[in-house]
Structures are given as structure tokens and as C-alpha cells.
Amino acid sequence: MAYDYDKSLRPGKLPHIWCPGCGHGIVMKGLIRAMDTCELDRKNTAIVSGIGCASRISGYIDACTLHTAHGRAAAFATGVKMAKPEMNVIVVGGDGDGTAIGGNHFIHACRRNIDMTYVIMNNFIYGMTGGQFSPCTPTGDKASTTVYGNPDPVFDISKLAIGAGATFVARTTAFHATQIDKLIAEGIKHKGMSIIEVIDDCPTTYGRRNQFRSVIDMMKRLKDMAVPVAAAAKMTAEQLDGKMLTGVLHKEVRPEYTEQYAKIIDLAKSA
Amino acid sequence: MAKKVALLQGNDACAQGALYAGCMFFGGYPITPSTEIAEVLSIELPKRGGKFIQMEDEIGAMASVIGASLAGSKSLTASSGPGVSLKQELIGYACIAEIPCVIINVMRGGPSTGMPTGPGQSDVQQARWGTHGDHATIAVAPASVQEIFSETVRAFNLAEKYRMPVQVLYDEIVGHMRERIEFPEAGELEVIDRTAPTDSPEDYKPFDASKSDVPPLAAFGSDYKFHVTGLNKAADGFPTTKAELVDAEERRQISKVEKPEARADIESNEEYLTDDAEVVIFAYGSTSRSARYAVNELRKEGIKAGLFRPITLWPFPENRIAELAKQVKAIVVAEMNLGQMLLEVERVAKGTCATPFIGRVDGEPINPGQLIAQVKEAL
Q1: Range 46-65 of A in CB contact (< 8 A) with B
Q2: What is the dihedral of CA A111, A117, A123, A126, to 10 degrees?
């Protein structure tokens, strides 16, 4: 029997805005399955997003949803979580939203280790505005503002998150649809800041400019790029060139922010 | 029982006023000359189960305040010029998404870093027009430590009642001065909480203005699930580009503040010796304290001077200023900027009286001597 997504989607809000071949829908379905796996009460779940194609997920899923300003989702989400620590807080957005204009909020949310799950869809491009290069566009690639080739070095979002202090960091791709929900569910269950990076595709604004003749080509690329962490351990640096490690990249236990703040409240009340 | 009194700094009074109003969340970022508000609330909020967070930047602070308010907490941020410049993006978000919150701006000069430890009143037009797009503004300008307390309470009330951001602007002199304050007893000042929805969760529309032009706001994490966006939206909260819906929503969000009965509720002015005045000084914040002194001195000389002190800056008290303009020979506008509220006085007076101006941007207060000389020149 087909999976029932309709019970989680808002009636009348589809069709979505995404282009044919875009991976964001695959990720949204993964998120819905993960929410079901974790049996999240949608009344008690906030889905917070910024601006961009990926951020439109907040409009489709039936929950407490907050479509904020460009880059600011993690900071809005921090306010929600602080005010109501008992809520499940999920952030969704793209690579430009999260790591360029929202970079500061992203790293500090990681540093605080505040209990939320941030699903960041990395399609290497600013899609909604028509394909300008993002901090994740591969060096040398074409975008509407890098027609001579992108001169910028690239952010590795997962490494950035680990470096900033996130306590659960995982990566997969839009091709690996069945892994998406498992990793998101693991992130939701993890106490602390979880980053799930999903390498995604944008056939319309990235693929066309970079010699991908079809969505299938782009999906093949995602499949070829992905190397599970365990397999990578047996590979040489040369073999790993141009590859992306997938699976759980980092997991540690560290005090969670709202729990720490609850201790502050106890201290202040007894002072 | 004798009232509790204290010698208190303006910024401390602001924090105490916030607590009186039921503030349960503060998100901020350090900046002179407002930091004492954050320092006091970092100590006091957790004592009552409230939350304090120092965010990574001013924008994040404003974002956290909106998020916390949406989760049901009365929320506050405090900053000064450069920080409030950064917050403008999300002040606009709070306007369009109709999220109650209070923003304190302890004003210094500018532009940019300016003179961080000096006073200024040069953010009063920024308060009105700092964020892009058409929107209504509520901003108040207390002039004493006692009034910072009561106006902070009123700012929370207005934010919750009109479901929007409210700004409290006072210059560094008022913010850092220490004065005697009498703490109101619980219940002495009105404290307004936001209106809870009466519609069932299934029927609830967060922007349905059919019953009131300020639709009730549910909280995240209650029985209500809903969508909030910074896009133009329909009554159900979801984005729309339908021209008639966009137009109606924008006009409603402005008229909820600017319609006559709302203005009458929001506007607050102090008039001193204006009944028979031939010349009136228009001044707010610390400048109004010099003006009151000047009026007293002028009266001793038999000059019929008065003071008009707007406590609510926005919406601008245009009806009363229009009346005064017909009564007096001149409205002398005095402010620590180079002519910002002056534009409003001129707009409303429409040439029916003279509107001479005294402005200072050198980090020094406008003194009574300057005002006395200007009034005499105007007569």
C-alpha cells in the first residue's frame, strides 16, 4: 500500500512550487516519514524555514509552521524552542539561506547545541532567484553570476556544523530517498542540535548550466558522489576525491541548551 | 502601606517595567547605551521562569523575540541605533505577520557608530520608516525614569492589544539618569494580555479580520496549528498574490492603528501651560525637561509659553498639533537631531503658525537658555 502522505499535508496547498526533477519533494516526503516514525504530535511541532525553494516546505506540512526571513530560520527557531522547550523544532532550508545570509545563526545554533533538527538541502545554487552561485557551488562551476566559472572555494556544510558544535551531523542525498527519513528520524531523537545535510539537485538553474542533460544525469551524479562512511574508511584519499561521505558523520553527547537553561532557572529561583 | 521606592537608573526601570508587564522572554545583543536592560533581565527573568538569551547578533535577537512571542511569551529586545538598524528587516516581519513584541531603542547619535556614549534623538523617523514597505508604527518616548517604567508597561499592552511591534525610544540621558521611582503595586497599572482565539482549532484563521481588525493570535504549541509567513497572505495565513486580498490586508494593518478610535487609545501627550499659550515648545525625552524649565523661566518674565510633550510619537498627534497651530504664534520644535519630528509638525501646522527649530547633534543636550532665546525670537 502506498504511504499515506496526505494526512500530513495541508489540504489545498498543492501543487508545490518546485520544478520537475527537483529533489526538495523527495526530502519533504522523507521528513514526513521521519515525523511519523518519531510519532511527533504536529500540534506540538514547529517547522521553521527561511527563504528559498526548500523553505517552502513549511507551507505544505500540517504543523505549527513559520516561514521567516532569508537566513533567519535558526534564530526564530531558537526563540520558539527557548519559550517552549517541550516543542519539537525542525528547521528546513537551503544551502544559501543556511550558510550565507544565515551562516551566523547556523553556526551559533550548532554551538549552543539547542535541541532542534535542521534539514539543510544543498543543491549548490540559489534556485529561487534564478541560479546565482552559493557558498556551496563547486569552484569552477557555472551560475548566472559566475558565467566565467565560480572563483569561490566551497563550504562543506557538514564539516562546518561539526566544527561549530552540532552534536549530530549526518549527510545523504536526494537519490538515497530511503536513507533520508532514517537520518532525520535519528536526528529528531537525538537530544541537541542535529544537522541533516541532503545533497540535492536543481536541474533548472544548476543542471542546465553545468552540462547535465537530464534529471537522470543529476541523480546519477548524486548516486556516484555518495560514499558511506564505513566504505570510505577502506578507500584512499585519491579514491575519495570528489566524493561526499554519507551516513552519520558525527555524534556526541553534550549538554543541551534548554536543559542547561532550566538549571539556570533553578539556580536563580533558589538564589 | 508605603509604596516601594528606589533610586533607579532609566534602563533598570525599563527592565522592571517589562517584568511588571509580564515579559517572559528577552533576546538581545550587547550595545551601549542599552546593555543594562539585558543585564538586569538576565538576572530577573529566570527567577520567574522566564528566558533570557544573548543571541549571536542583533538580527538573531529580533528573530528570537518573534519566535518566542509566537510560542506565547511576551517578548522584548533592547538596542541602540546601529543595532536597531540591523533589526529593521524583522521589525517589518513582525508588522506583516502581526507578532506582538517590544523593541527598546536607547538613542545615541549617528549615522553608524556615531557617539556611542552620547545622547541623541535621531532615530525617531527610523522608528516610523526604518523597515521597508507601508506599515503602521507605534512608538513611545518616555522622559523620566518613572515614565520609562510605565511606558514600557504600556508598550507591552499596545503590542498585545494591537498585535504588532511597539518601539520605546528614549535618549541616553534618560536611559542612564538615576531618579526616584515609586513602584506601582500589582494591579495598579493595567496589564493587557493578547486576545485568545474563540474559534475552534479547525476553524481558526490567524488573519481573519471579520470579527475584529486585530485578529486573535493563537500560540504555537497549543491546540492550534497554523502558518505564519512574511509574504503577503490571505486570512488563513497562506501566501497570496490576489490584488484585492493584498490591498485589503495592507490597509487593515495600517488602519488598525491609524483609525480615529485607535489613535485616541494610543496617543498620549502631556501639555504644560498650553491653555493660554502664545508660543509652545514641542519637545520629548530629555529635551522636554529643558523645555519645561525654559517655560517656567519665560512665564516669570510674563511670556505666555507652554510645553507640548508627545509621549506617543507614532501615530503622530496630528489633531492636537493642528489645534495648537491655530492657537499659537509659534510651535518651537526642539530635538537632538537636525529636524525629524519637525517635519511632522510642519506637515500638520500647514503654515498656520511659525515652526522655528532648535536641533543639536553634538552629543550635548539642548539647554534651557537656547530654548528661551528661540521663544523670544519667535514672538
Answers
A1: 46, 48, 58-59, 62-65
A2: -70
